[in-house]
Amino acid sequence: MGAVSVIEDPQDEDLKALYQRLEVASGGLGVLNIFKVMAHNPDLLEGWLRFAMKLLGTDMKLSPRLRELAILRVFQKTRGEYGFAHHVRIGKQAGLTDDETSQLSGFDTSDLFSALDREAIRYVDAVTDLDDGAPALASNLARSLSEREVMELTMCIGHWNMLARFMQSLEVPLDESLTSGLPAEWRDWM
Known about the structure:
Blueprint: H1 13-25, H2 33-38, H3 42-56, H4 64-77, H5 81-93, H6 98-102, H7 115-128, H8 134-141, H9 147-169, H10 176-179
């Protein structure tokens, strides 16, 4: 069990209704444990969901593929198994292949990644590590991406770093629905 319990059976009617909406929207994954932990503060959960859906939504100029590459790298760097498992699935929907995901840790030597991919991954590493070189890498990215895309990428990196720390600190249990259907070796990709 994690440091904070998952709320399996909410008693509050508003929270029950939110769980029902999450179940419908889950694409068969069910109400995920991250939501069940955040449900200790339903207002915070709903506010976070609105924000996270903006980052995953169609209003972003940043390509979904590059976004997912960045998110997977954040979870790889932070050893965030929960988020990595979740975003392997989302990454596939955004166009990433299992080969790309499995070779992400060796991105610098893999021919599967473009120059832009490599630059973005180096930027993810710098932001995640709070490296002083991050601003220069952001400036380099602005040669290939718009300022809006660089800002959106940075927002995604920061957001999923926060989630990695949240989930690891509270030991949010990994949902079986997130790992079913993933290749058997997915943990080796981290």
